[in-house]
Amino acid sequence: MKEIIKVSHLSKSFEDNPIIKDISFSVNEGEIFIILGKNGAGKTTLIKMLLHILAQDSGEIDYYGQAIATYGQKLYEMTSAVLENAENTYGYLTAIENIEYFAALYQRKIKKQEILQLLEQFDLAEAANKRVFNFSRGMKQKLSIICSLLNDAKILFLDEPTLGLDFKANRDLLDMVKKMSKEHNKTIILTTHQTDVIKSLADRVLLLNKGEISFLGKYESFIQENSLVYYLINTNTDSYQLTDENLADEKLKKLIEEGEKIISYEKHDRSIEEILIDYYKGG
Ligand SMILES: Nc1ncnc2c1ncn2[C@@H]1O[C@H](COP(=O)(O)OP(=O)(O)OP(=O)(O)O)[C@@H](O)[C@H]1O
């Protein structure tokens, strides 16, 4: 697997407040790499450094073995980004005009038919000729994503891309991201708080905690290493959680002997939500 981004000993503080502390990792070509961490963990800060929008205090970021600073304008041909709350679209232009504008910016010829198809795909066809300042947040987000896809960049950064999207748009976006990675070999670096996004997309995850990496590896390993089976007994007055099956059986017998009314007795696998809550509590 080809390594395309290499981050070494990266650090960043804001007003003496360390946000990223000496982290190192690399991103491989064609993978979907998800950066996780609770609110304020430094995900957006990290992405901005990877895009050279924000300068690091120390450490190196290399693209294809070459320092990020040497790329200049070329970095913007190689990468594309939809940042959190970013208003990359223009309110006084219509949806079609925005797409035409961005296509021209990226020197890409695009036919009206193709624009309409893109809008259709994201359920924006009806708003094609409406000015964007009247759009809802979700509609603007969808249009931003369409525009970010126009430069055909090899590396795509998506900061909470599904925020504000309705169910269908969410599903369409996940399908599209998966297709870009698996069929078009694009590298996707994404942040999200939504576990359906992690579950359906993640090849590898990086978990930021107090500015450090608390997990880096394949999504399957993340789940396996943190997996936990437990047994849950619910009575009409209380609930008991035990990790050992024999102890759970004994507890159940005892409760029955004591005359407790058992509502349910279930085996559970710890979910990704529970795993992340535990990590985030620790940070
Ligand atoms: N320009 C800045 N000046 C000062 N502090 C900043 C600046 N940008 C970010 N921070 C702080 O750095 C920390 C990390 O912010 P960041 O936006 O990277 O977090 P995040 O992981 O993306 O959070 P969220 O999940 O809420 O989007 C926060 O405490 C934030 O207040």
Question: Features of this protein?
Answer:
283 residues; alpha/beta; Rossmann fold; four-stranded antiparallel β-sheet; 10 helices; binds adenosine-5'-triphosphate
Explain what you see.
The chain is α/β, with parallel strands linked by helices and 283 residues long. It folds into 2 domains: 3-90 and 153-225, 3-Layer(aba) Sandwich (Rossmann fold); 229-282, no CATH class. The longest helix has 16 residues, at 167-182. Helix content is 35%, strand content 29%. It starts with a strand and ends with a helix. The model has no long low-confidence stretch (mean pLDDT 91). It binds adenosine-5'-triphosphate. The site of adenosine-5'-triphosphate (ATP) has 11 residues, from helix 1.
Q: What's the short story on this structure?
A:
By secondary structure, the chain is of the alpha/beta class. 35% of the residues lie in helices and 29% in strands. It has two domains: 161 residues, 3-Layer(aba) Sandwich (Rossmann fold), CATH 3.40.50; 54 residues, no CATH class.
